[in-house]
Design a protein that fits this description.
The structure is a homodimer of 328-residue chains. With 328 residues, chain A is α+β, with helices and mostly antiparallel strands. Chain A contains nine helices and ten strands. In chain A, helix 3 runs parallel beside helix 7 and helix 5 runs antiparallel to helix 8. Chains A and B meet through helix 1, strand 1 and strand 8 of A and helix 1, strand 1 and strand 8 of B.
C-alpha cells in the first residue's frame, strides 16, 4: 500500500492529455497495489460528463513486456461483459505509455468496495464471476506462461532454506518438503486450461451488496489450469485472514456460484484437493520469501506466511479431502 | 503520505450510515496528510446523485479537543463562500465521531489539483483566497492558541541541540540562535489578529487552472497575526522546493492578489520582513526536529530542513529587506 513515485500536477495534466480524456479535475494517490503506484483521477472532455480513472505506474515487479497480455485481457473481458475495467488507449492507440522510463496505463474506474468478511451470497457471486472469466477467455488469442508456478515456489522456498522456514515455524521446513514432493508427483494432467487470474483475493474484487462490480489487478494472470484458479480463489476467500478458521458455508457458496456458470468436469473436481494444497504452497512461498527479505524501512509490511501454512495443513488433512465433493 | 489504519468495507459502510449520506459506493485510502489517515469515499442517497467525501481519521498529531475549532471553521468559511470544504455532520448533529478510540470526520470532496510549479496567475488567486479567509473570520467566535508559535520553535530547536543542527549544516546552530534572538526582540505588537491557516503550502491548495477550488488541511489553524499567515504563504509559494531559487514574479503576484481583497496596513507591511524570517524558522524547526527523530522504518520520509534554512538566509539578507514594499 503505497505511492512510490511522485507525479506533479503539471505532469499529470500532460499525461491525461496524452490519453485524450479531457481536462484533469482531480488526482489522488491511492494506497492500493503492493508493487505499483496508483492514482484515482477525474477528467472531463468538453461537453461530456466527468469520468474517473485509475492511473497505474508499473514499478519493479511488473515486466513491461507482459503489459499487452494484461491490458488486452481487460479489454477482451470487458467487451464480453465480464465485470473488469477496460483500458483507455492513448492518442496513438497504445494501451500504455512510458513516463520517465516507467510504464503507465489508464484504466476505467469501477465503483464497489472490497469486503473483509464475505457473506455466502457474496462468495456465490465471486465464484460465478470467476467462471464467467474462464468461459469468456476460451478464445483469447494470447498466452502467458505462469511465472508464479511450481518451479518458482520451489525456488523461493529453497531460498528461504531450512533455517529460515524453521524460524517462521518449527516443522515448517519438513511440511514444505513433503508438500512440494507430493504436489510435484501428483500434478494433474489433461485438465482444461485457459486464462487464470491467479490472485483473486477479496482485495481484488469490488462489490456493491452481493453484486460483483469489478475484478481487478490481473497482474498475475497467465495461461494455466482453470481448476487451479478455483483453488486459489478458495484459499483466498474461505478462511479468516490468519488461516485459523475455515468457513464451510463460504466454501460451498463459492463452488456453487462457479458451477452455476461453468460446471466442473469430474477430473477437475478430483484434482481440487491437490490444487488447493498447491495454492496454499504458492502463497506460503512468496510470503515466506518476502517475510525474510523485506527491508525494515520498506513502505509495505510483509504478510504473515503462517496464514498460508495453516491453510496448507487444513487442505492436507485427510478429513478434508472430500471438501470439494465427490465426482458426480 | 500514508494510510495508518485499516478500515474494512463493512465498518466503512457503518460509518457512512452514521453520517447519513446513503449507501457506500466506493472507498479508497489516499496518500495524503502527513499525520492523519484519509479515504476518498463515494456514497449515494436513494433518489439523489452520488456524492464524494474525504473521510479523515485523526492520528497522533491532532488533539481531539481542537477538532471543533477546525471543523466549525470549515463550516463557517464555507457558509461565507470561501473555497473550503464543508463538514458533514452525523445523525446526531456531531461534526466528528469516535471509531475504535480515534476521531473521524467526513468532509466534502472538492475538485482540483495541487500545483507543483505555480504561475503568477495562480499565486495571485491564492493570495486573494487567503485574504478572503482573513476577512471572513473576523467575527469567528472561537479562538485557538497557536501551539506552533515562537516558544515551540525554540523548544524544538533546543531539542535538536548544537550538534544536531551542525550535522544538518555547518553554521546552522549559530544562524538559528541569532534569528531566534532577533525575532524574539522584534516581534511586532498591535497588528491585526484573526484566524490563520498557518500552513498554506501548494499541497494544501486545490486549483483548476488559475481558480482556487479548495483550501484544505486547516489542522494548524489558530488565532494569530494575519500578516504572519501571509509570511508563511510567501515562504511556501515563492521558492523552489529546495529553497535555492526565489521567484520575484510569484512573490509580487501573491501579495497583489492578497491586497486586491484586503489591503495591508502600513504596520503589517513593515513587519513582513521579520515575519518572513519567523515563518522560515517555524518550518526549519519542525523539519530539523523530524529529520533527527523520524525512525528509519517510518511510512513518511522527513522533509529536508535545509530547504528552510536557505529561505531563512534569503529573508535575513539585508538586500531583501525591501521585498514586501515600502509603507505607502
Amino acid at each position: 500500500m503505497a505511492v512510490y513515485t511522485r507525479i506533479g500536477a503539471e505532469d499529470m495534466a500532460a499525461i491525461v492529455a496524452a490519453f485524450d480524456v479531457g481536462t484533469l479535475l482531480s488526482a489522488k494517490g491511492i494506497a492500493e497495489g503492493v508493487s505499483n503506484s496508483n492514482w484515482l483521477l477525474e477528467a472531463q472532455r468538453e461537453g461530456e460528463e466527468p469520468r474517473r480513472f485509475i492511473l497505474t505506474m508499473y514499478e519493479e515487479r511488473t515486466e513491461v513486456e507482459d503489459l499487452p497480455f494484461f491490458l488486452d485481457l481487460l479489454d477482451y473481458l470487458s467487451a464480453r461483459k465480464c465485470p473488469v475495467p477496460r483500458t483507455i488507449h492513448d492518442r496513438e492507440g497504445a494501451s500504455y505509455r512510458l513516463h520517465e522510463g516507467k510504464a503507465l496505463a489508464l484504466i476505467e474506474f469501477l465503483p464497489g468496495v472490497s469486503v473483509s468478511e464475505p457473506t455466502p451470497g457474496q462468495a456465490h457471486s465471486v465464484g460465478a464471476a470467476l467462471a464467467k472469466v474462464h468461459l469468456a477467455t476460451a478464445d483469447f488469442p494470447q498466452r502467458r506462461t505462469n511465472t508464479m508456478g511450481l518451479a518458482t515456489w520451489q525456488r523461493l522456498l529453497d531460498a528461504c532454506g531450512t533455517d529460515g522456514l524453521t524460524a517462521i515455524h518449527p516443522g515448517l521446513a519438513a511440511t514444505v518438503a513433503r508438500e512440494l514432493d507430493h504436489i510435484t508427483r501428483h500434478w494433474p494432467q489433461g485438465l482444461p486450461e485457459g486464462v487464470v487470474h491467479a490472485d483473486l483475493f477479496p482485495d481484488n474484487v469490488l462489490m456493491l451488496g452481493e453484486e460483483v462490480t469489478g475484478l481487478i489487478d490481473f497482474y498475475f494472470a497467465a495461461t494455466d489450469l482453470l481448476a487451479y484458479d478455483i483453488a486459489v480463489t478458495h484459499a483466498a476467500w474461505c478462511f479468516s485472514d490468519d488461516g485459523t478458521r475455515f468457513d464451510a458455508r463460504i466454501s460451498r457458496a463459492l463452488l456453487e456460484g462457479y458451477e452455476s456458470v461453468r460446471p466442473l468436469q469430474a477430473e477437475e473436481r478430483a484434482a481440487l484437493p491437490l490444487l488447493a494444497r498447491a495454492a496454499a504452497v504458492r502463497f506460503l512461498s512468496t510470503r515466506a520469501y518476502d517475510w525474510m527479505n523485506t527491508p525494515e524501512d520498506a513502505l509495505v509490511t510483509p504478510k504473515d506466511p503462517l496464514a498460508f501454512a495453516r491453510r496448507l495443513e487444513f487442505y492436507a488433512a485427510s478429513e478434508n479431502q472430500a471438501l470439494f465433493g465427490e465426482p458426480a
